[in-house]
């Protein structure tokens, strides 16, 4: 029996940049096998080498050490079977949509009639029918990116490499384009054999791909490889979906403590309920942004109150919250940003909310609150009832404060809403209960 080699294989790929004393290792000994039929996401903090890996795969740069094999043959120079789609696709402003797609085929010497037919077909498939003669300036960002996809697919690449392809688009356009890409891919309408996508957006990765590769930095390397076997279409609020999102975030945060020790238990359950630190989300963001600017992403806690103009107790609450949520670690008087904390600091408003939501959903108090809301008639609960339950664990005044913090965090994360006037907590339509921590065990395998 003859074994077919994988579509793509990276063998101990290392990339160093700079020379002499300034030389540093951006990516170290990366081993990666990509098979036909796979849609794979590469995630990790900025600077972990995701773009470097993409450039190496497409042959835009040779690795300093190691080998890239394409269908079993060592790659030398540009990979003719791979095409890259960037965050913002550079269209030629003086060419129409049709001409912009045809350009790639012209460069390959395809006869005019044939390339016109193929370009028209692709424009139709990405949903731009009727815009063939439009110029890029007449199109929205989402439509321009569709032209980019059509152009990338015109050359029928076996391997489609995507570098943050949806991140420059507004939410609705991004979601629509994701849906269209998935449709083209899952229905086999494009001859693409595999897709490798770099993204910062974990939910995007979990909604699209079959496999997520998590990288960490210093040096850039693969730290986890997760297979996602959920059928499409995937619903972002389903338990299993949230469980995988949580798992990826937890891998990025590098959590090591068992959760029941770290997080405490829900009110009324055996064990101690951990008090939520009284931290305002905007101040927490300020702390993380401050750390993101520090050398080695680290600060001396002793000096931090002065640097951030905060009182000591206020700072301690912030630090405790940052650690509880996996954004920082503390050792020997220093506070250090985790890759997850760095991702949060660099993210926009919506991604921050998503990150925050996935982190607080892990806390027993929020799981308990969400379960309570789900079980309740009309999915609403009086705040006074929650407070009585919290008084099983805390003195009355502290219980009130805990309720207040939970409401502020939960509202920010959009886990639930709160009507101040009547003192009622309620679920927005469509919210579902996440699974309990013990039940989370997606199929994760160690990197090879
Ligand atoms: P990511 O895409 O995960 O943000 P990159 O692959 O862009 O990571 O970069 C990995 C590391 O290599 C970063 O520290 C970055 O500053 C560095 N780097 C990337 N390209 C170059 C280059 N051409 N010269 C020097 N350093 C580089």
What does this structure look like?
- It is a single chain.
- The protein is α+β, with helices and mostly antiparallel strands and 448 residues long.
- It has three domains: 8-252, Rossmann fold (3-Layer(aba) Sandwich); 277-359, Arc Repressor Mutant, subunit A, CATH 1.10.10; 363-439.
- Helix content is 40%, strand content 19%.
- The protein contains 16 helices and 17 strands.
- The protein has helices spanning 50-57, 97-107, 112-125, 141-154, 171-186, 202-208, 239-253, 259-263, 281-292, 301-308, 312-324, 339-346, 349-360, 364-375, 383-390, 396-412, and strands at 8-17, 24-34, 39-43, 65-70, 73-74, 82-85, 159-163, 194-198, 211-216, 221-227, 298-300, 328-331, 334-337, 380-382, 417-419, 424-426, 444-445.
- The strands form four sheets. Strands 6-7-8-3-9-10-17 form a seven-stranded mixed sheet, sandwiched between helices. A four-stranded antiparallel sheet has the order 2-1-4-5, with helices on one face.
- A hairpin with a 4-residue loop joins strand 15 (417-419) and strand 16 (424-426).
- Helix 9 crosses helix 11 (312-324).
- The radius of gyration is 25 Å and the shape is globular.
- Mean pLDDT is 86; it is low at 432-448.
- Bound molecules: adenosine-5'-diphosphate.
């Amino acid at each position: 029996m003859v074994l077919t080699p994988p579509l793509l294989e990276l063998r101990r790929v290392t990339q160093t940049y700079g020379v002499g004393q300034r030389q540093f290792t951006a990516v170290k000994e990366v081993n990666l096998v990509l098979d036909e039929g796979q849609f794979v996401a590469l995630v990790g903090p900025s600077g972990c080498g995701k773009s470097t890996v993409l450039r190496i795969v497409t042959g835009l740069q040779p690795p300093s050490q190691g080998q890239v094999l394409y269908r079993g043959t060592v790659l030398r120079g540009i990979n003719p079977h791979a095409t890259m789609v960037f965050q913002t696709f550079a269209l030629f402003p003086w060419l129409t949509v049709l001409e912009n797609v045809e350009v790639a085929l012209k460069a390959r010497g395809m006869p005019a009639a044939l390339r016109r037919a193929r370009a028209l077909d692709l424009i139709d498939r990405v949903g731009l029918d009727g815009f063939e003669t439009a110029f890029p300036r007449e199109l929205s960002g989402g439509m321009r990116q569709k032209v980019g996809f059509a152009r990338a697919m015109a050359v029928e690449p076996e391997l489609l490499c995507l570098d943050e392809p949806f991140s420059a688009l507004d939410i609705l356009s991004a979601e629509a384009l994701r849906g269209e890409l998935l449709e083209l891919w899952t229905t086999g309408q494009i001859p693409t054999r595999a897709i490798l996508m770099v993204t910062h957006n974990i939910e995007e990765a979990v909604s699209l791909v079959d496999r997520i590769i998590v990288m960490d930095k210093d040096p850039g390397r693969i730290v986890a490889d997760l297979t996602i076997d959920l059928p499409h279409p995937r619903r972002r609020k389903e338990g299993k979906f949230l469980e995988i999102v949580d798992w990826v975030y937890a891998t990025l945060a590098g959590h090591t403590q068992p959760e029941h020790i770290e997080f405490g238990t829900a009110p009324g359950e055996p064990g101690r309920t951990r008090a939520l630190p009284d931290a305002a989300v905007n101040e927490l963001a300020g702390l993380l942004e401050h750390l993101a600017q520090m050398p080695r992403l680290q600060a001396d806690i002793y000096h931090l109150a002065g640097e951030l103009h905060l009182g000591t107790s206020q700072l301690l609450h912030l630090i405790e919250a940052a650690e509880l949520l996996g954004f920082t670690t503390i050792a020997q008087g220093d506070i250090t940003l985790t890759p997850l904390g760095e991702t949060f600091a660099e993210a926009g408003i919506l991604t921050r909310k998503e990150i925050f939501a996935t982190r607080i959903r892990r806390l027993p108090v929020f799981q308990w609150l969400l379960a309570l809301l789900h079980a309740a008639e009309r999915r609403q609960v009086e705040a006074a009832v929650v407070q009585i339950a919290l008084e099983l664990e805390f003195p009355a005044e502290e219980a009130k404060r805990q309720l207040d913090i939970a409401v502020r965090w939960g509202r920010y994360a959009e886990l639930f809403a709160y009507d101040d006037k009547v003192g009622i907590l309620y679920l927005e339509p469509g919210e579902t209960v996440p699974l309990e921590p013990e039940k989370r065990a997606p199929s994760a395998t160690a990197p090879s």
